[in-house]
Amino acid sequence: MPSKKTKSTMKKLVRPMEGRKLAGVAMAFANYFNIDVILIRVILALTLVPGGFPGLLIYVLCWILIPSEE
Fold first, then answer.
1. Domain annotation covers residue 5
2. Is residue 63 over pLDDT 80?
3. pLDDT tens string 5-32
4. Residue ranges making up the domain that contains 41
5. Whole-prediction pTM
6. 11, 25, 47, 51 - which has most CB atoms within 10 Å?
7. Residue 35 scores a pLDDT above 90
């Protein structure tokens, strides 16, 4: 039977206060998925290549919606 996660063991998507370059969106996703932040930054940069606006809009929405670490 699968174990249930309690509130204390659940992962949270939060923008860290330390180690971030701009808004911490890439660092938040890297910490959440436990992967290297450079990979996330490359993916975010590639979303800007086809025209810029869709990737920039997604980044700004994530910046607004993902809470900052307290």
1. no
2. yes
3. 655 678 889 998 887 788 889 999 999 9
4. 25-65
5. 0.76
6. 25
7. yes
Does residue 19 fall inside a structural domain? Answer: no
> Which position has the token pair 């969106």?
25
SS (H, E, C) the chain: CCCCCCCCCCCCCCECCCCCCCCCHHHHHHHHHCCCHHHHHHHHHHHHCCCCHHHHHHHHHHHHHCCECC
Q: Is residue 36 part of a domain?
A: yes
Establish if 2 belongs to a structural domain.
no
Percentage with pLDDT > 90 across the chain: 36
* Number of domains observed in the structure of the chain: 1
